[in-house]
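Illustration: DUF5615 family PIN-like protein.
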Amino acid sequence: MSIALYMDEHIRRAITIGLRLRGVDVLTVQEDGRAGTPDPILLDRATELQRVMFSQDQDFLIEANRRQVEGINFSGVIYSPLLSISIGDCIRDLEIIAKASNPEDLADRVEYLPL
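Result:
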């Protein structure tokens, strides 16, 4: 089984396109009509859609940590600092995670890129 990704609104389009070209199921915040939505609501939406959130926004780390501490379930967050990984490496690492993981592998967790 694989996981589906929910891309935060500031993710570079080249990453989304590269993942789709590799057969990864990706939905962007913009495509979902949620641009400008606060991070906690976006994480709720990702969980509702059974998608793992990918973000380069540190605020998602804070929200994920809060949920872990308070025992609030969420579908998972993959985080990468904006300047710490190339577009190509980001696509490669996300593809590996998406194709090699099951939803329960990332539930209530934060994974960091680069791998």
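Reading the tokens back as a structure: The chain has one domain: 5-112.
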